[in-house]
Write a structure and sequence with these properties.
The protein is an alpha/beta fold. It contains 9 helices and 14 strands. It has helices spanning about 20-35, 50-55, 85-95, 120-130, 160-165, 190-200, 215-220, 235-240, 250-255; strands spanning about 5, 35-40, 60-65, 70, 75-80, 100-105, 110, 135, 145-150, 170-175, 180-185, 205-210, 225, 240. The strands form 2 sheets. An 8-stranded mixed β-sheet has the order 5-4-3-2-1-12-13-14.
Length: about 260
Amino acid sequence: MGKLIFFDIDGTLWDERMVIPGSAVEALHRLQGNGHKIFLCSGRARGNIRSKELLDIGFDGIVAACGCHIEIGGEIVCEHILSPELTERVVNLLRECHMPVVLEGPEFHWIDKDGFDDDPYVNYLFEEMGKSAKVLEGYTSDIRVNKFSADVLADTDYDRIKRELGDEFNFLEHEGNVVEFAPKGFSKATGIEWVRKFFGVPIGDTYAVGDSVNDLDMLSFVGHGIAMGNATQPAKDAAEFVTSDIHDDGIKRAMEHYGLI
């Protein structure tokens, strides 16, 4: 059997304008032509992975929501949903602590109506997801999510949030005061391990390409971790190999470096 190669989306497969370099698409198709399997591996929940251009590439599977949602061949094979009790506690706590939140699920996202102040990412969610992006008015029983992200504001009581949610979540702190909350026991690495065992592939035959803080675990875990040239320094430090920037044929050059294409 061929190798398993996992690709982050943002900053890896496409840039901030969601442009996928033609050389990356070509490399992905050549990988499959050579008998390898390719997977999206994203912090995005599945409800926010819907770009036709991206999905039409024809990935063999998707690891979404930091390992909480796994699809192989278009079928959901693993799903972790936060319990209603925990979700309600999160919504109430973050509201009390003035931390606007995006609750991220496999079908829908629930987004705080106040606090983001024309945040471009939040605007993108409403535009891209349409009716699948809902305004969060407070906890309701229909909210079904894998994880969530939130912004630290000047008056956010972040210390309290860390105290009260630290047992249930890992805190992935991004630039721009954005915090990604991934359930303990789930990560891109655990998702990759699930897929690896499913196909019976040795760890040495796994590859991952990423660029940021939520890629650190998978870059360290796989047999061969690859950081983009435009990656953060921690991602580069965690990787075995650093390729060129996204628009300097970074994906293609990495796959050529390892003789996969």
